[in-house]
Design a protein that fits this description.
By secondary structure, the chain is mainly α. It contains 16 helices and six strands. It has a two-stranded antiparallel ribbon with strand order 1-2. A two-stranded antiparallel ribbon has the order 3-4. The protein has a two-stranded antiparallel ribbon with strand order 5-6. α1 packs antiparallel against α2 (about 55-80) and α12 (about 405-430) runs antiparallel to α15 (about 485-505). The longest helix is centred in the middle third of the chain and has 41 residues, at about 350-390.
Length: about 550
């Protein structure tokens, strides 16, 4: 899949038989399949009959070929199903994938049949298969490093198809998610597995089956409305509010939601790219969200002034703005964290990345989530009050569910992990255990500004420039200034706090467990370092990102 641009069939003048329809192809495969099935039946052993070895071999080979043809047909039919606009076709694809998966053990058990791959060392270390020329695209490549298509071994092929089927089955599950925030999370989680380009593409086509409808039946406009209601409960979208049927208010909110559609579709589509391309595009989409933020604030102000005239006890301040800000912050956080996953940062840069996350972005995110939570509760109280007035019966107070509470908790844990890492890096630097480059042609300021350059387009939150960062993170403002031991101890407290928060999360998901795998050893290491463990050694610490891609386990050798 990595070489798809090198294999454009038209380059070779091969038109891929465009005159043959998909239906005809699957029909022909079915004909071949039926023919093979007849041969399998005619060659199978009968009771009391002496078996001819040649007939037995033919039976096994026909059976093996039958399974492969059937697998090809099922896979192709499933892929064709994804091109249809009805969500029922996705369920159909899911069933087909289950059937295809059932054939893989039989395919694996018959790998020894047929022409086997030849190993030709003159053409690399990969097997040479009849009908495949690894260097077929060589003359079409740009004059860069030589690239060849590596034909994978048959055993690996079965494993690949098994994983592909699992990924396609996962893609099919997206139709069960109808909430915008849920869909965004689904795309993020799916992308974290670094899926192949085929499964990423299928997810995209399933999400936006046509330009206006999401998942074949939901209007993006309605999904955004529901997301706003679920996140911040703006009065303008509450049927109990006078703005709900106000024409002017309707125009304001409809115009705003229409303008939201494109950036949010783009944001979801960004997760269809590979991880490196995603990061690049996240940096660019911040500009669109900055424009949206500006509009949200204007619409909020207009709706607030309208509401004051009609219902003075209510307010419409920072509702839409809070929601857009939340998404902007998530993009910014994702942008910075993905740098760890892609191994873009040098060790000496860790401290300001973790500082920006803990002291700034996560602080803003938690403030935004708390504001949204308060807004929801205030709206609920007003709604309940109106219901009580309209009803003479006494209603029992229900225990309110707070949909944002889990995210607030997770953000606190992330903030503590980032703060712990920031203080760890500062302390290690004090002890001379961070290798720094000899700045000749650039400086730390240049690197810092390069890392946070995409944030310059965002007004809220305002970007923290290097000079501000140095002032805000200057330890000399404390009296007495903390020593490395103090910072190690402070870092261990942050990791401890993250651990406590996560251990109290109900029904923890794998992410919670992954963070705990980092927090627990780091608590111990920080306490050891605070006690002066290996203080004299100048061996650089190791940062092990195997347990979690954003937070390393610190190892002192």
């Amino acid at each position: 899949m990595g070489f798809q641009e090198d294999f454009q069939a038209m380059t070779y003048g091969f038109k891929m038989a465009n005159n043959v329809t998909d239906l005809r192809v699957t029909g022909m495969l079915k004909d071949v399949e039926d023919d093979l099935q007849r041969r399998v039946k005619s060659t199978r052993s009968r009771q009391g009959e002496q078996r001819d070895p040649e007939v037995e071999l033919e039976h096994q080979q026909c059976s093996a070929l039958f399974n492969r043809i059937k697998f090809t047909r099922l896979l192709l039919t499933a892929l064709i199903a994804f091109t249809k606009k009805e969500t029922s076709s996705v369920s159909e694809a899911q069933k087909l994938m289950t059937q295809a998966a059932d054939l893989l053990p039989a395919i694996h058990s018959t790998l020894q049949h047929g022409v086997q791959a030849q190993n030709d060392t003159s053409k690399g270390d990969h097997p040479i298969m009849m009908g495949f020329e690894p260097l077929v695209n060589q003359r079409l490549l740009p004059p860069t490093f030589p690239r060849y298509a590596k034909i994978i071994r048959r055993e690996e092929m079965v494993a690949y198809f098994s994983k592909l089927i699992d990924r396609i089955k996962t893609v099919c599950e997206v139709i069960n998610t109808t909430h915008l925030h849920g869909i965004l999370d689904f795309f993020c989680e799916f992308s974290e597995q670094s899926p192949c380009v085929l499964s990423r593409s299928l997810l995209q086509t399933t999400f936006l089956m046509d330009s206006k409808k999401v998942l074949g039946s939901h209007l993006m406009h309605d999904m955004i409305k529901d997301a706003l209601r679920g996140f911040v409960s703006p009065p303008v979208l509450s049927p109990k509010c006078c703005l709900y049927n106000n024409h002017q208010a309707k125009d304001y909110i409809d115009s705003f939601i229409t303008h939201c559609s494109r950036p949010f579709c783009s944001l979801i589509q960004i997760h269809g790219h590979n991880r490196a391309r995603q990061r690049d595009k996240l940096g660019h989409i911040l500009e669109e969200f900055a424009t949206l933020q500006d509009e949200a604030e204007k619409v909020d102000a207009a709706l607030h002034s309208l509401l004051l005239k009609l219902e003075p006890q209510r307010q419409h301040l920072a509702c839409l703005g809070t929601w857009v800000l939340y998404h902007s912050l998530r993009i910014m956080i994702h942008y910075l964290l993905s740098g760890f996953e892609l191994e873009l940062y040098s060790m000496h840069e860790y401290y300001y990345i973790y500082w920006y996350l803990s002291e700034f972005l996560y602080a803003w995110l938690m403030s935004t989530l708390s504001r949204a939570d308060s807004s929801q509760m205030a709206e609920e109280r007003i709604t309940e009050e109106l219901q009580r007035r309209g009803s003479s019966k006494k209603t029992k107070k229900k225990k309110k569910t707070r949909p944002l509470s889990r995210e607030i908790t997770m953000s606190q844990a992330y903030q503590n992990m980032c703060a712990g890492m920031y203080k760890t890096m500062i302390a290690l630097d004090m002890d001379g255990k961070v290798r720094k480059p000899q700045f000749e042609l650039d400086s730390e300021q240049v690197r810092y500004e390069h890392r946070f350059a995409p944030f310059n387009s965002v007004v809220t939150p305002p970007p923290v420039h290097y000079i501000q960062f140095k002032e805000m993170s200057d330890l000399k403002k404390y009296t007495p200034p903390p020593q490395s031991a103090d910072l190690y101890l402070a870092a261990s407290k942050h990791f401890q706090q993250a651990k406590l928060i996560l251990e109290n999360v109900p029904s923890p998901d794998p992410e919670v467990n992954r963070i705990l795998k980092v927090a627990k050893p780091n608590i111990v290491v920080m306490k050891l370092l605070a006690g002066g463990h290996k203080k004299e050694t100048k061996v650089l610490p190791q940062f092990d990102f195997s347990a979690h891609k954003y937070f390393p386990v610190v190892k002192i050798i």
